[in-house]
Write a structure and sequence with these properties.
402 residues, mainly alpha, Cytochrome p450, 3-stranded antiparallel beta sheet, globular, binds protoporphyrin IX containing FE
């Protein structure tokens, strides 16, 4: 299905359940994005307690800039390196904060360990597109889940349980409790069903959902920006001072590069699709997000081009279907992509989203592709993602007269 409006309708159809992760059950069985109906509503309702109004704004304005400033200073001090490795360091911290995975040592080696576990989890989420021996990958994911449980999750659970007991003993004051998914799941005020193995998978999924999708979006937008501003120094100058333009670049790049090029659903009962095609119970429906996001009826005759100044009709998302729609619409969208600006939006207190924040920080520090080391596509997956993207930072020798 390639038509935008039809694709949107299918994503909203509650007779179609998630179907993308059947191959990756080792990680994805029973996690939020793989649940349907009442079970999904109950889990999402509980987890949404974390993401109440004001949470993302607080995270973007007060928490994330500190992490980012430290990371950027370090990246500049060594003159650059890989955007993937740099971005992941910032994003894994963000994903762990939201999920509720403590990093008591706050050390480089602890971050490295989490990153290697997260890479294994990412293989589990994309098993349907893996080019490797799938049973071997399943084994790798399963070992990573056990290690994650012992090394990170159990200590995080113990610390939260002790805080929850203290709060309950005092009669329910909440300000001392961490605001994260693990805490709401442990308190489980809605009394949903969740055993220990399920909790491990849910936490691993949150870490990977927060970090892995965002890193792909970051690298894609940097590449689009480099191409768009190649030999156009005035564009780079504007980008350095105009965060609204950077956010439009993020949205436009997300439209062209959805984290998964397709969404897959399975019919719960016989369904008549908007294409007039009938699918039987359990039959699969593939939604071609990549093509739907380039539907010329919606995005104009140059829909396949990167144009951050594109005009949209009312009601059309600038990032197309890249954050999903309907029951599985991305829970972290406002954090990753910010709020879509209106003509009267005040740039001072606007939410730009953390991808735009990272891209802006890189641009302000003179980011440019490393001419000695070309970027490489990730060979381990059929998904069109960048595996390596070396850049230089700091003053540009070619524009320096000395
Ligand atoms: C640029 C970054 C991101 C992109 C492109 C993205 C994309 C998506 C998409 C397409 C879906 C729907 C999947 C489907 O319909 O099958 C989704 C769901 C989800 N995303 Fe994101 N996401 C991003 C960032 C984040 C972040 C930062 C978080 C962290 C909280 C997050 C958490 C989730 C969760 C938990 C779901 C499942 C929601 C549900 O099933 O109810 N995502 N995301």
């Amino acid at each position: 299905m390639k038509d935008y409006q039809q694709a949107a309708k299918v994503l909203r159809d509650t007779n179609l359940r998630q179907g993308l992760y059947d191959e990756g059950a080792v990680l994805m069985e029973g996690v939020l994005v793989n649940l349907h109906g009442e079970k999904h509503r109950a889990r999402r309702g509980l987890e949404n307690k974390v993401f109440r109004r004001g949470f993302f704004s607080h995270y973007e304005k007060d928490v994330f800039p500190k992490t980012l400033a430290l990371g950027i200073a370090q990246f500049v001090s060594v003159g650059g390196g890989g955007v993937v490795a740099f971005g992941l360091r910032a994003l894994i911290n963000l994903a762990c904060d939201l999920a509720g995975v403590d990093r008591p040592q706050a050390s480089q080696s602890e971050t490295d360990r989490l990153l290697s576990l997260m890479r294994a989890f990412a293989l589990g989420t994309t098993l349907a597109h893996s080019k490797d021996d799938r049973d071997k990958v399943r084994q790798q994911v399963s070992e990573a889940l056990s290690a994650f449980d012992v090394e990170f999750l159990q200590p995080s659970v113990e610390r939260r349980m002790s805080l929850i007991r203290q709060v309950e003993a005092r009669g329910g004051e909440e300000q001392d409790l961490p605001r994260d998914v693990l805490t709401v799941l442990l308190r489980n005020e809605d009394q949903i069903e969740l055993d220990d193995a399920q909790l491990v998978r849910e936490m691993a999924f949150f870490v990977v959902a927060g970090a892995q999708t965002s890193i792909h979006s970051l690298v894609h937008v940097m590449h689009e920006i480099f191409t768009w501003s190649d030999n156009r120094s005035e564009r780079i100058e504007t980008l350095r001072t105009d965060p609204m333009l950077v956010q439009r670049c993020v949205h436009e790049s997300a439209r062209l590069h959805p984290s998964s090029p397709v969404a897959v659903r399975r019919a719960e009962c016989p369904v008549l699709l908007p294409t007039e095609q009938r699918v039987e119970t359990d039959e699969q429906v593939t939604i071609d997000l990549q093509s739907a996001n380039q539907d010329e009826k919606i995005f104009g005759s140059r829909a396949s081009e990167f144009d951050p100044n594109r005009q949209f009709d009312k009601g059309i998302s600038p990032y197309g279907l890249s954050f999903g729609l309907g029951m599985h619409a991305c829970i972290g969208r406002t954090l990753a992509a910010g709020v879509t600006p209106k003509p009267d939006t005040d740039p001072v207190d606007h939410q730009y989203g953390i991808i735009a924040l990272i891209a802006s920080a890189l641009l302000k520090n003179g980011v440019r592709p490393d001419p000695e080391q070309p970027a490489e596509v990730d060979a381990k997956t059929e998904r069109p993602n960048w595996g390596r993207y070396p850049v230089l930072l700091g003053s540009n020798p070619s524009s320096n007269p000395h």
